[in-house]
Amino acid sequence: xxSTESKYLADIYAExxxxxxxxxxxxxxxxxxxxxxxxxxxxxxxxxxYEEVDADGVPSVWCVPQGCVTDRVVLYTHGGxxxxxxxxxxxxxxxxxxxxxxxxxxxxxYRRAPEHPFPAQLDDSVRAYRWLLAQGIEAGHIATSGDSxxxxxxxxVALKLREDGDPLPAALLPMSPWxxxxxxxxxxxxxxxxxxLVQRPILEGMSTMFLGxxxxxxxxxxxxxxxxxxxxxxxxxxxxxxxxxxDNAQRFEAMAKRAGVEVRLxxxxxxxxxxxxxxxxxxxxxxxxxxxxxxxxxxxxxA
Amino acid sequence: xxSTESKYLADIYAExxxxxxxxxxxxxxxxxxxxxxxxxxxxxxxxxxYEEVDADGVPSVWCVPQGCVTDRVVLYTHGGxxxxxxxxxxxxxxxxxxxxxxxxxxxxxYRRAPEHPFPAQLDDSVRAYRWLLAQGIEAGHIATSGDSxxxxxxxxVALKLREDGDPLPAALLPMSPWxxxxxxxxxxxxxxxxxxLVQRPILEGMSTMFLGxxxxxxxxxxxxxxxxxxxxxxxxxxxxxxxxxxDNAQRFEAMAKRAGVEVRLxxxxxxxxxxxxxxxxxxxxxxxxxxxxxxxxxxxxxA
Lengths: 303, 303
What we know:
The structure is a homodimer.
Chain A: H1 7-22, H2 28-35, E1 48-55, E2 58-65, E3 73-77, H3 91-101, E4 104-108, H4 120-134, E5 142-147, H5 149-164, E6 171-175, H6 187-190, H7 200-211, E7 235-240, H8 246-258, E8 263-268, H9 283-299
Parallel strand pairs in A: 3-4, 3-5, 5-6, 6-7, 7-8
Antiparallel strand pairs in A: 1-2, 2-4
């Protein structure tokens, strides 16, 4: 049984899809403007302040809950297919998550495709992570989080750090991660009728822009379904049951389990893409945020 | 000499005007999306928290600077020609103003034209003012503020309260107010080459939507240039020297002076429409906010 309030997310997605369908020639600036509405889904978290910061060249915003500890941090990478979305669309969601955990969150404005194809997004996110270390934050006191394409980055940042021999974060918190750059998942078809926004043509358009001329859809850093998860930190994912991307999370969960990684996946019945956006508006969003916080606090050494 | 940082405002306005000119058939939802970028001009004010609130049916957001007094309030009405803009585009600007004063600001999402023509915007703004009184805030502890069309409302709210015999706010703080619904001002022509956004066709389109079928361009509550300012609270306006709307503020200043109202008008050389948006980014924006705060604090009984 889904809440009445949660319908807002399906409605706004249906409105966007309707506008994009009605205007197939919609230009990128207009599409970016459209997706900037994402923040509307989330209620303003109370008792959180903000501060813009340059994270070694990556424009970012700190979300600082009143009375939080300052030595634990969520590194938040926003969704939007690597093409749309910003630190502004996800400020409130990251603020809710930070507040529930009792730490700060850093929301990063990585460079977007197609102007900057893969691996610019990953490079910027890793750069922000290393900037946190340079600020004196211990790797074991950092969790990565992000949604959709940013959920991909929450994982691929850890893969890249492992590859480079850098210290890994304490935990990964991807929401509705978009991992499959080949569009092979069966829920892409089986949930096409229930997902209000994420349809094959959008994914194909965005992966083309993301990969650019030189990227490969099977590069493990672009598509973690091709990565070896062995040695990754504990992972907690959530995903909506109505999503076409549902099996991205399910396939990665299975891979991680086989590789011996601690992994949890919550599938929320009847929910749309990145339903934690509903924090501050609908009980499903608040529950998702609180569940992530309860799970990650001990990983970060918080009581 | 204008600052390098202040050029951002002229640049973003020129980009919007370019997009609207390139797409003369731009629909209202796309235009609203475009203007939602307004918030980008303003840097996040630090040490301010936010809380959404229903002000007797008017969706609003509280801006609450840390350590502020809670019994003084700025009622903030956003700009956007009565057609575009929202509590989200102006949250940061109102947050800066509230922080500089040391009180709270309430940013109201009045109903917008053309779906809701005049006087829906005024009715909602007055309703929010009366809701403040019902919360125990004294009229003499409230200042109205707003920019552009919201600067009109910052004045017309006081006119409507006077008409209804309600207690008046302590002070009015309109920024770049748009008052002239007849488009008669001489700076509309003489500053057309320097104003990066506000050109006659935009104003004509918005006033048509605002006035609707029944409104009059000479109704004193729609066009305060036809009002009698006698008995209004002290007024402090600022406006950019490059604005087509410059003489809206100048004409209202002259009227208010003749009527014996305490009035101050600051004209900022070389600045664009609603240059206080530059708070947190450029010195001109910070100065405008600080000057308003210094002027209004004693009016609100603050040291």
